[in-house]
Amino acid sequence: MNLSDRPRRNRKSAAVRALMRETSLSASHLIYPMFVQEGQENTPIASLPGCTRWCVADIAAECRRLYELGIQCVDLFAVVPEEKKDAAGSEAWNPQGVVPRAIEAIKAAVPEMCVMTDVALDPFNTYGQDGIVREYEGGAYEILNDETVEALCKQALCHARAGADIISPSDMMDGRVAAIRAALDAEGFTKVSILSYTAKYASAFYGPFRGALGSAPKFGDKKTYQMDPANRREAVREALADAAEGADMLMVKPATMYLDVIAELRRCSNLPIAAYHVSGEYLMIKAAAASGWLDERSCMLESLLSIRRAGADMILTYAAPQVAAWLAETPVN
Ligand code: PBG
Fold first, then answer.
1. Does 210 contact ligand 1 (Cβ within 6 A)?
2. Chunked in runs of 10, what are the mean pLDDT values of the chain (333 residues)?
3. Superfamily of domain covering 24-329
4. Measuring from atom 5 of ligand 1, which residue has the nearest CA?
């Protein structure tokens, strides 16, 4: 054949492929979500194999190990016992709660570690909803927006006072980024960043996470605040709003089913983009690998690389420690 254009020339050897590679994946792109609980025990999480509910005393030592693996940011989630939950979710801003204590412990042990915290009420209120619930006769209910935003500001301040570097509101209430920014600034926390869950979809892939926290909604669903999986333009609307309200970074969640949304936000904003490779996405690969149906390492790396290729700067993933260890052996090729 007389071909002047032979794209295979650019794939002819590992060295040439390395020169042509458009996207990279390294431990510095990863954020590790971690669960922290009361008491002295660390409990493995059956619904998220490889993950643990850490006690405050041990999470700091684990963060030292993670930092040495190259993971420079962790995201903290509280596991709250039923007896500490109430209708308002007031444990969320208890300065003696597990999250503020864990932030202090991690900062004391590994000051270089960037500590991010999740801000939302679902692990803390009796309803398992991200906001404050008003119940009506006949079983109807509403998730109150403005009242919830006030509570989120208290939670964000509680984390900032304990030393959090990044506040990450995952609740999807309107106006919360501006309100949290103002609350932080009013107390002098101008350096505390906000990573907004900008396009968080009402996804079935959160199931294993809710099992890990015991935070599944007691009734109803989250569709009046989390986004409809059918929508992409709406994600742009949310992104423009969050940017105008002062978000430092925008997030798309889940990740692999929403690569088009990541690419869209990458195009319409200059803010850094995060993507959350959620519990169900992680578990699909773990389960298929445990059955011998997929190769865990190559499928996990390919999934995370595809999220980077779509335009994400950083990825929250439960696979972070494992991936960091794999990448230390051999970079993605
Ligand atoms: C709730 C929250 C959820 C996740 C992170 N924060 C679940 C939900 O919205 O119900 C999901 C994370 C995952 O599935 O890995 N504020």
1. yes
2. 96 97 97 97 94 97 97 97 95 98 98 98 95 92 96 98 98 98 98 98 94 86 97 98 98 98 98 98 97 97 98 98 94 59
3. Aldolase class I (3.20.20.70)
4. 170
